[in-house]
Specification:
about 210 residues; mainly alpha; about 80% helix; elongated
Amino acid sequence: MDGDDDGKTSQTRRERRKQSKYFELKQPDRSGPKGKTLLEIAEEREKNLFKLADERRAELAQGTAPAGAADLDEPIGRFGEAVVYTVTMAMLHFTLDVLVYNQYGEKINWATIFSRTAQSIPVILALVYALHRQADRVIAQAFFFALSTLSGCYLIHATNAWAYLAVMKRASPLGTLWVWSVIELRPSLALLSLCLAGAFLRWGNYSVF
């Protein structure tokens, strides 16, 4: 057994010597990386991406970007964005309908609620698709401010002055329109619009319940 082990050891040594003729044996280089590290490369790419994003925003803001460039830069595009908003607003419309039924102690008519929600979807989609991308313009902000203030005050008046059947039909569309128009406003204008609705509530001695 010892002879066999010695023979194997000698054979292994001979193989190592043969390999050393083809491969130069050296100690590993511990002086550090000679080129850029992965972290440095990632940081450079990140800076370039931020630079390109800033340039794209500047082009879009100045209107110098090619037509349709804004849609190409976004994963879902203008129509996809409108669909997302529409789904959210339709869910709000549905929820408000259910809350109105509960408010008046009526048995919930699910068929009617689903039908009203389905009817609201094309209208919401058309409004969002046409107006959402224009919301930053001054004229659009003026429009949304007027719309939010009027729809909010009208909803407050309707829920306090109208018969419950009329409220059940109008509260959900008005509430959805109010919320959407406030969302499209800049924070300062949205706050001002809500303050005006609150002032109208107090001035008319209305109640929220």
